[in-house]
Amino acid sequence: MDYQNILEEIQNEIQGSLKKGKLANYIPALEKVNADDFAMSLVTLDNKHYNIGCTEQKFSIQSISKVFTFTLALKRYSKELYKRVGHEPSGDPFNSLAQLEYENGIPRNPFINAGAIVTTDSLLSIYKNNTFEQILKFIQKISNNNSIEYNEEIFKSELNHGFRNIALINLMKSFKNINNNTDKVIETYFKQCSIMMNTKELAQAMLFLANHGINPPTNEVIINELKAKRINSLMLTCGHYDASGDFAYRVGLPGKSGVGGGIVAIIPKKMAICVYSPKLNAYGNSLVGTRALELFSTKTGLSIF
Ligand code: GLN
Asked: Does residue 217 register a pLDDT over 90?
């Protein structure tokens, strides 16, 4: 299949949609991006790379970081972690407080904010003061790229405007589902959201999920096959918050979005994809990114169904 040609077709076909959607504006730092940027990268298991658009442009990975921290936590925990965070779609926005109150401080899944905050708390119990460094080191390792870093301005902006996330962590603490100091947990969570990567780096970093948990460049087992299956399943059912059903219906692949405008998607046993376009739909997912992935799975016939 001529993937490069397909990427070119997609780039042409999404042009009309680049005007639609809205930049994330819950923190000022996220609005300082080029609103019309578009990039898409594919990396195959046999190390072929296909790129289109501004694939060198770094952006804040935001909720895509939830896949990395959940993977890191699952390496150490299994059943214990699922007592503290579920595996059902929430049907609610990513930062919703309502369901958490009804459900006694147990978040529905690790890919909404509350679930990711619990995951980060579980990492703090292992790595203590070194937690963010360990998260970053893990991302650098699976990307085979030691230059990946976080953005201090975005981190500070998250911290200064993090009222809902701070409410979420306090609510969970009241239900005894946060074990560490809430300030430390929330700081680590905001730092992981502020990590900057481009589409090439993100596609590379996700490749182990297309390969039963083994990272193709090094053959290192990042996570066992069963856990890799579960992470993919959760991406399919929960990776786009209350639009997860719509994403599955349109794209038919496990995926995870972030409000920075990135989306990663996995084609099992074939490749990892990352698309970037910062304007979001009403659910906080990249509008053009979703469209581009829908075009890709339709044109190639490569969905999991
Ligand atoms: N930093 C964002 C938040 O905590 C991440 C959410 C997202 O990407 N959906 O609200």
From this structure: no
User: Which residue of 25, 66, 94 sits with most ligand 1 atoms within 8 Å of its CB, as the best mutation to test the pocket?
Assistant: 94
Ligand 1 center to 211 CA (angstroms): 27
Q: Among this protein's residues, is 75 annotated catalytic?
A: no
Task: Among 113, 191, 196, say which to mutate for ligand 1: greatest number of ligand atoms within 8 Å of CB.
Answer: 113
* DSSP secondary structure letters along 80-144: HHHHHS--S---S-TT--HHHHHTTT--S-TTSHHHHHHHHHHHHHHHGGGHHHHHHHHHHHHHT
Q: Given the structure tokens 């898409």, which residue do they identify?
A: 40
CB 67 within 8 A of CB 240: no
In short, whether 193's Cβ falls inside 6 Å of ligand 1 is yes
* Euclidean distance between CA atoms 135 and 66, whole angstroms: 11
Cα separation, 85 vs 230, in Å, equals: 14
258-280 confidence digits (pLDDT tens): 999 999 999 999 999 999 999 99
Q: What is the span of the domain harbouring residue 198?
A: 3-300
Q: How many folded domains does the chain comprise?
A: 1
Catalytic residue (choose from 66, 191, 200, 279): 66
- Identify whether 305 is part of a domain: no
Judged on CB neighbours under 10 Å (0-12, 13-18, 19+), 103 is middle
> Which one of 96, 189, 264, 288 is the catalytic residue?
189
CATH number, domain with residue 294: 3.40.710.10
Predicted model pTM = 0.98
Q: Would residue 186 count as lying in a domain?
A: yes
List the one residue out of 62, 239, 285, 64 whose CA is nearest residue 158.
Answer: 62
